[in-house]
Amino acid sequence: MSDLSPTPEYSLDDKDFREQNPMAEFLRMERMPHIWCPGCGIGTVVTSFAEAIKAGGYDMDKIAVVSGIGCTGRVAGYVKFDSFHTTHGRAIPFATGLKLANPELKVVVISGDGDLTSIGGNHLIHAARRNMDMTVICVNNFTYGMTGGQVTPTTPTSANASTTPYGNTEPAFSLPFLVDAAGATYVARWTSLHARNITKSIGEAMKHRGFSFIEVISPCTTLYQRRNRLGDGVSAMEYYREDGEIQHGADTRTVDIGYQGKIAMGKFVDRPRDTYLDAVVKHLTSVIGDDYELYGKTPMEKKAEEEARKSAAGKGESADICEDGC
Amino acid sequence: MSFGNLKKAYGNVHINKNWCKGCGFCVQYCPTNALEMSKGYNAKGYHPPLVKDAEDCRDCKFCEMVCPEFAIFVTSKKDEG
Amino acid sequence: MAEFPKIVSADPKGVLTGRHFMDGDHALAEGALAAGCRFFAGYPITPSTETAERFAERCPEVGGLFIQMEDEIASITANVGAVWGGKKVMTVTSGPGFSLMMETFGLAAMMEVPMVIADVQRGGPSTGLPTLTAQQDMMQVRWGSHGDYRIIALVPDSPQECFDLAVEAFNLSEIYRVPVFIMTDETVGHMHEKVVIPPAEEIKVVERNWYTGPKEEYRPYKFDGKHGAPMVKAGDGYRFHSTGLTHDERGYPALTAEDNKKLLTHLIQKIDNNADKIIRVEESGLEDADIVVVSYGITSRIAIRAVQVAREQGLKVGFLRLITVWPFCENKIRELAGRVKAIVVPELNYGQIVLEVERAAAGKCKVISVNSCGGAVHDPEEILTAIMEGAK
Fold first, then answer.
1. SS3 helix, strand, coil % of chain C, rounded to 5?
2. How distant, in Å, are the alpha carbons of C65, C129, C197 from that of A101?
3. Which of A154, C234, C287, C306 has its CA 20 to 30 A from that of C332?
4. Nearest Cβ partner of A292 from C60, C89, C240?
5. Which chain A residues touch B68 with a CB distance below 8 Å?
6. What's the ipTM?
7. A33: cis peptide before it, omega within 30°?
8. Is the Cα dihedral B63, A37, A23, A88 positive or negative?
């Protein structure tokens, strides 16, 4: 223990480190350190997300993060945005309701492969079909980590999981293919090693109008790596480095991942299409008339606006009086 | 080959030894090999990284980006004078 | 701090003032619009679909959004999200959909989210009798989701009451930050009757308890056992967190037995301690009654006939109609049980609310249930027979 201090890199005490950390404005620092395991890639994804927000110049008050249940689901509790930790598989419909009720929000769903594609699969494909304006970041560690390493629809065939102790016999979803087929208009995949690429993709996805889906392959050191004797976090990252291959614009039919197989990465889909709300507003305006308003203002809001207008006008008048008198 | 007035960037590395969980990503992927795992360990038994030679850090901030624990960040030397 | 509850007149845009001839399902939709509901995520299911259809038609006129989601689970979850987006929300369903939504009712209770859900009950279990009436979900609405929590359930007996109780349901949900259920049934839902919708100024609506204090001091929850903390909506800069995990007043997960106690005590006391303010009943002839007929919803319209006939025959029969079924009016039943010979409880099920009556009566008087398998309303004769039985 004596080797650790007092060298320059450890010079900041805990309080200063929390305050000066570039992540300080994005994290609920009072809840650090987080619960994720050594070598888990979720923390990297959170950092990439924060970098994308920084670079994008967004009004951080208007960003809402919704997550489901699982290790990745804990992200909502750690980020300093309006954030919601919802029920298993239901982050996407929650995010749908949130976005539709307050369209000026930028809604980001961050959840895991089991949550989004197994129990949440139906909601995933429908939100993609509708081109609901949201960004979905799926951290794919090929397992249900939080509950002890069970098989998910993305677990590669033959891999070991606690509920497939003799090896997984099922084929896995190719997530980019699935969401592309369902109608997603921005689809990308990276691994947690490619932190800067993730940032760039998140930036593009958040600017993209419509359903954006970013899959991030990430290590689960405690369950998937260990159960399959694949080594630790560095072993996983080395696998990503060796077998990750950038294929921007690849046909999503060709990007499935076999057990420890090639990982095709990059931006696969980026096409423009009316979002759900665009389509609703456009159509209803054409059917009902130009006075169609999506929500309109309540009498309370109208009254508040009226009063604000009056007081602003009133200030103008009294300023004149003051100038004359002073 | 002349690079004209190109200056090297230098960075100061700050590490929270308590938050580090010894995953080794920063050590593995630092492009100038400026970090190594320490022999000492923190209260949880993990070996946090330490900077081998402060002159080696090029302020690329990749360790800051890849660390899953938010336990390491780099400040640019030129900002600190 | 703003006054609470803040009561205002309804937004005239959503009020279809006038005398109408409409069914219960449509009246529910009109009541919700009058109360300020501007978001409805739903899924079709007989016999509730008409409410969703009415919303789909009226939303664009009124300035609201209707979306048919891919299933009931998506519908109710989207509604919870929409509340955090700042809207008043409602959905309708029937038995099978109600069961699907159960997990999310727990989430709504846990996140203390004001919302209204209508269950237009039909024969069950499972797919059951999609087009025929029943009152078989009365216990489910109270206990259906896992864990310990409290909800409010109102039961209308007519399309007019569907309108009135819809407004009441929204008001109660905003005051107590709790999901409120409207338990109609297929008969009331599909029955066409006169529905009078008053002018907007006469409809009193409770505004959401919006927080108005300094941003740094905001806490999304307050475990005061009264009505909880004021609300905000996402996008207003409060950077709050809300979770379905057991949490503390900051909204952060707090997973110890002690934290759970603080939270659950609040969720339960919020309703239990305010029961006398929440409970509404309709009563007649209770002062000198020997037998009391306790009923709710459509059954009460048959029960009142049986009560009339029994009174004509000289029996002293009281009539108690539960408008609020949950929280249950146990004090009233306790008091009645101490002085009447019998309480007769007809319901369109095999005995659900009668269990509450028995519990509250604690053996002090006879409790006679008039069960039914559902599918059709009672014959007044059945209830009259039970009243005679009680008079012995």
1. 40, 25, 35
2. 8, 35, 27
3. C306
4. C60
5. 36, 39-44, 192
6. 0.95
7. yes
8. positive
* pLDDT value, residue C384: 97
Q: Does B58 contact A at CB distance below 8 Å? A: no
Q: What was the pLDDT predicted at A1?
A: 47
C-alpha distances (whole Å) from A2 to each of A6, A7, A8 are 9, 11, 14
A36/B40 touch (CB, cutoff 8 Å), yes or no: no
Contact C376, C133 (CB under 8 A): yes
Mapped onto helix, strand or coil, the DSSP state of residue C109 is helix
d(C-alpha C9, C-alpha C206), whole Å: 9
Measured between its terminal Cα atoms, the distance across chain B in Å is 29
- B11 shares contact with chain A (CB less than 8 Å): no
Neighbours of B, requiring at least 3 CB pairs below 8 Å, are A
Kindly report, residue by residue over A56-112, the tens digit of the pLDDT: 999 999 999 999 999 999 999 999 999 999 999 999 999 999 999 999 999 999 999
Q: Which residues of chain C have pLDDT under 50?
A: 1
Chain C interface test: which of A86, A107, A287 (most C C-beta within 10 Å): A86
- Enumerate domains of chain B plus CATH numbers: 11-80 (3.30.70.20)
Domains defined for chain C, CATH in brackets: 7-206 (3.40.50.970), 281-391 (3.40.50.920)
Q: Does A238 lie at the interface with C, CB-CB under 8 angstroms?
A: no
In this predicted model, what pLDDT tens digit does every residue of A4-52 receive, in sequence order?
777 888 888 899 999 999 999 999 999 999 999 999 999 999 999 999 9
Q: Chains A, C in contact: 3+ Cβ pairs under 8 A?
A: yes
Euclidean distance between CA atoms A90 and A85, whole angstroms? 10
Q: Is A100 on the interface with C (CB under 8 A)?
A: yes
**Cis peptide upstream of residue A93 (ω within 30 degrees of 0):** no
Are C121 and C96 a contacting pair, CB within 8 Å?
A: no
Residue type, A174: S
- What does the pLDDT look like over C21-44, one tens digit per residue? 999 999 999 999 999 999 999 999
Name residues whose C-beta falls within 8 Å of residue C210's C-beta, 6 or more positions apart in sequence.
C2, C230, C231, C232
C208 touches C88 (CB < 8 A): yes
